[in-house]
Amino acid sequence: MLETSARLLKLLSLLQVRRDWTGPELADRLSVDVRTIRRDVDKLRSLGYPVTSLPGAAGGYQLGAGAELPPLLLDDDEAVAVAVGLRTAANGTIAGIEETSVRALTKLEQVLPSRLRRRVQALQAHTTPLTSAGPTVHPETLTIIAAACRDHQQLRFTYTPTQGGPGKRLVEPQGLVHTGKRWYLVAWDVSKQDWRTFRVDRIPDPPTLAARCTPREPPAESLGEFVSRQVSTNVYTYQAVLTVHAPMQAVAERSSPMSAALEPIDDNSCLMRTGADSLDRIVFHLMFLGLEFDVHEPPELRDHVQAIIGRLQNAIRVQG
After folding, report:
1. Does the pTM of the predicted model rise above 0.70?
2. Tens digit of pLDDT for each residue in 15-74?
3. Fewest Cβ atoms nearer than 10 Å: which of 20, 194, 252, 268?
């Protein structure tokens, strides 16, 4: 039985390496007769692998695409290449696949032999990417958090907030959000009894797993929108609400989820929520957009815009 299972794995590996194989070629590689190859192919089909027969005098086989992705067999070099690629993507070098890469990396590292894990870590440690400056997050931290989200397991970690010293946190993780520059963890803070957003780069050491927890209803339909509101408005002294007279996509291209939360109104306008610790910073951000806008909140922002307009008009008159 073990011999048959080992032969099936070897046959599957051969079918994944090359597109087409004849029956005699496979029989020669596996040191069996053609009849045994036919039986083994039938067994692979019964396990869900889409092995198709090829016409011809000698006959042949081809591993095709099925409705579902079957398990893949990777040799050592292929496994290292995939792991390194996923780690690179998880750090945000390929836009749009960061969170998917973390999920895939979590699955791969769970079964990666220690000898290959050391190769991946060595390659990662001695590779210097030329990327934009910004906070970095260790992939191990991301994979631990992603696994805890998947398994509904509490996390303990040390967290360093913007103000104040580091402290211990116990949370029920909901999900990870990547903004293009930073990773955020959305979690239920057990001690605060409320939803919180944590910057993962401010977690200096990999979290440790704690007790399992019952899944909670997420704080918003979209975790991305929740994080955008948290980091763009809620943490600042002044919180502004405006209508920008431009399509939401055009406004998004001139801002970022960390500076503004956007909601569509119609095809030609959107609602913007933004914040800052000074009104001057909000006005500067709005002028940088180069788009028409209406201020709804706060009232003092409208007065501040009017005061800046007056100073600019005085500057023009003086120059004239």
Report:
1. no
2. 877 778 898 999 999 999 999 999 999 998 888 888 888 876 667 898 877 645 566 777
3. 194
Q: Per residue in 97-124, pLDDT tens?
A: 677 777 777 777 777 888 888 887 777 7
Q: What are the tokens at 38?
A: 């036919």
Largest CA distance in the chain: 97
pLDDT tens-digit series, residues 297-312: 898 998 898 888 888 8
Determine if residue 152 is left, alpha or beta; phi over 0 gives left, psi from -120 to 50 gives alpha, anything else beta: left
d(CA 128, CA 130): 7
Q: Are strands 21-22 and 51-54 parallel, antiparallel or unpaired?
A: unpaired
